[in-house]
């Protein structure tokens, strides 16, 4: 730590969910990955991209991915930025879209990387606690002069969604930049994408890690007014998205059939998981995402997490107010869910 600067010494570390090396020994329901592999068309495109061209740098702006996403969503490429995972967008925003003495705000609980990345870049922030229904209290974000607000829609870890009308009303009143993190939007039916034509203070982020089954590839997007996209391009590393990632993301966007099939499978499994949990007496937050935030009236969340882990099932448990009452379970395959439910019912029986 001798050479760490003060900010690095003081910042809170982001702790990702466990990623065990011996993956086959575990049922892994802790990091909201997709339980199904990428579609055959995407795997084929990835294999094809492993060729001699790898000696060349990739397109610096992932132009083909930009253009295809723009075309599919009636936007122009100038509205689209391709990132090394949506996480990269948050870092860039803190680096270049807020003054050092500015103030950011994020809901709590939410995706903890917002807090970490703000601290890593020396940006002060407020955590705005969710209301008693675990909804985002938008009015609280108007009480101070916040320069940057990030909300996840649907939110992680609660799985709750915000209706787009509410985001629209907020954008109209808010003087700073609003980021709507739509990492889980494909499991939901509402997107704020149309708002970028109406407002220049909204940035939407998307991820290929969840609905496209490509968490290992690291691709995300930012969609916004062209001036914001130009700023992100100016700030980014020279070649932030590698050739293989660009090929995979492009193929994933093309393969609508594979995508729709995947989403419907995850939705079906989620319904099954929610019902099975309810039959064991669990109280779950109705989820708009690919995970379920749930608690049991008689067994603590920490004990559930620890005992599941002893049984080689990984779910997520977070310390801290509100969230420590719950575990967050990612939707798995049917076999994984059935095993989880068997173990949970044994734990509950004591
Ligand atoms: N946003 C939210 C709300 C998330 O939960 C996650 C993943 N845990 C991400 C963004 C990260 O997405 P990516 O893999 O594209 O960086």
How would you describe this protein?
- The chain has about 350 residues and is α/β, with parallel strands linked by helices.
- It folds into 2 domains: about 20-35 and about 255-350, Aspartate Aminotransferase, domain 1 (Alpha-Beta Complex); about 40-255, Aspartate Aminotransferase, domain 2.
- About 35% of the residues lie in helices and about 15% in strands.
- The protein has 11 helices and 13 strands.
- It has helices spanning about 5-10, 40-50, 65-70, 85-95, 115-120, 165-175, 225-235, 245-255, 255-280, 300-310, 335-350, and strands at about 25-30, 80-85, 105-110, 125-130, 150, 175-180, 200-205, 220-225, 285, 290-295, 315, 315, 325-330.
- It has a 7-stranded mixed sheet with strand order 2-8-7-6-5-3-4, sandwiched between helices.
- α6 (about 165-175) links the parallel β5 and β6.
- α9 packs parallel to α11.
- It is globular.
- The mean pLDDT is about 95.
- Bound molecules: 4'-deoxy-4'-aminopyridoxal-5'-phosphate (PMP).
- The site of 4'-deoxy-4'-aminopyridoxal-5'-phosphate has 13 residues, from α4.
- 4'-deoxy-4'-aminopyridoxal-5'-phosphate binds near residues 111, 152, 183, 215 and 220.
């Amino acid at each position: 730590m001798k050479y760490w600067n003060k900010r690095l010494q003081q910042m809170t570390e982001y702790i990702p969910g466990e990623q065990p090396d011996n993956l086959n020994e575990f049922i892994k329901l802790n990091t909201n990955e997709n339980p199904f592999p990428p579609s055959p068309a995407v795997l084929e495109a990835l294999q094809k991209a492993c060729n001699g061209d790898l000696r060349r740098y990739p397109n610096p702006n992932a132009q083909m991915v930009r253009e295809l996403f723009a075309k599919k969503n009636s936007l122009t490429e100038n509205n689209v930025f391709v990132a090394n995972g949506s996480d990269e967008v948050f870092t860039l925003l803190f680096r270049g879209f807020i003054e050092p003495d500015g103030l950011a705000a994020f809901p709590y609980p939410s995706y903890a990387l917002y807090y970490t990345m703000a601290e890593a870049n020396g940006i002060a922030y407020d955590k705005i606690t969710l209301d008693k229904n675990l909804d985002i209290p938008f009015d609280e974000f108007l009480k101070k002069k916040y320069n940057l607000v990030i909300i996840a829609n649907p939110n992680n870890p609660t799985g709750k969604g915000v209706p787009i009308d509410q985001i629209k009303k907020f954008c109209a009143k808010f003087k700073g930049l609003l980021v709507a993190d739509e990492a889980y939007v494909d499991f939901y039916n509402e997107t704020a994408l149309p708002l970028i034509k109406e407002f220049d203070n909204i940035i939407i982020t998307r991820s290929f890690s969840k609905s496209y089954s490509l968490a290992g590839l690291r691709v995300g997007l930012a969609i916004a007014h062209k001036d914001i996209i130009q700023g992100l391009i100016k700030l980014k590393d020279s070649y932030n998205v590698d050739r293989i990632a660009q090929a995979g993301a492009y193929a994933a966007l093309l393969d609508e059939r594979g995508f729709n099939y995947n989403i419907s499978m995850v939705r079906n499994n989620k319904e099954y998981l929610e019902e099975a949990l309810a039959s064991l007496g669990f109280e779950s937050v109705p989820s708009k995402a690919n995970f379920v935030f749930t608690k049991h009236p008689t067994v603590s969340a920490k004990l559930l997490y620890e005992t599941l882990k002893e049984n080689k099932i990984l779910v997520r448990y977070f310390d801290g107010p509100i969230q420590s009452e719950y575990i967050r379970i990612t939707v798995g395959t049917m076999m994984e869910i059935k095993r989880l439910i068997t173990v949970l019912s044994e734990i509950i029986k004591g």
